[in-house]
């Protein structure tokens, strides 16, 4: 591989290794490697997700859970052998991926929430506004003049 290809592959390696992390990571774990294989569209009849996981485990150090860039290159070579293609074709496919792809899920519509014509109660009719309400102080809360007007007399001390 030429130097520009190796540098762009190194930056792509760091992009996939750091995916979902707030900092740049210098080594890649198994989940990020499988994501790279999926995003680069390397999966086929000869190379499955299980094969990619096995290739990762063969390339990593015995006690480690992550691979370095050099081990990543060895893993790409093993992927090329498993697919029955050249290393250059696999590297080109990885470089064409351009980096990790974020897959999101769009929420389904909820009829009673999204359709405002189905709102009930305060939401449909509008409710009291804080600026329209009378001043809330102790005199308003303890005002019993309405009760006296309706004929309900408060108990008088004897």
TrEMBL record:
GO terms for cellular component: microtubule. It comes from the Eukaryota. SUPFAM superfamilies: EF-hand. GO terms for biological process: microtubule bundle formation; microtubule polymerization; positive regulation of protein polymerization. InterPro entries: EF-hand-dom_pair (IPR011992), TPP/p25 (IPR008907). Belongs to the TPPP family. This is EF-hand domain-containing protein.
């Amino acid at each position: 591989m030429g130097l520009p290809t190796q540098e762009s592959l190194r930056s792509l390696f760091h992009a996939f290794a750091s995916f979902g992390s707030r900092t740049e990571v210098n080594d890649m774990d198994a989940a990020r490697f499988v994501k790279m294989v999926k995003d680069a569209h390397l999966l086929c009849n000869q190379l499955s997700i299980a094969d990619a996981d096995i290739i990762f485990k063969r390339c990593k150090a015995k006690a480690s859970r992550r691979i370095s860039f050099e081990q990543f290159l060895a893993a790409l070579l093993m992927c090329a052998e498993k697919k029955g293609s050249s290393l250059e074709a696999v590297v080109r496919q990885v470089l064409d991926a351009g980096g990790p792809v974020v897959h999101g899920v769009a929420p389904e519509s909820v009829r009673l929430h999204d359709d405002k014509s189905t709102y009930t109660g305060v939401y449909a009719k509008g409710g009291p506004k804080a600026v329209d309400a009378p001043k809330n102080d102790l005199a308003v809360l303890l005002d019993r003049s309405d009760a006296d007007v309706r004929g309900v007399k408060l108990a008088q001390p004897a």
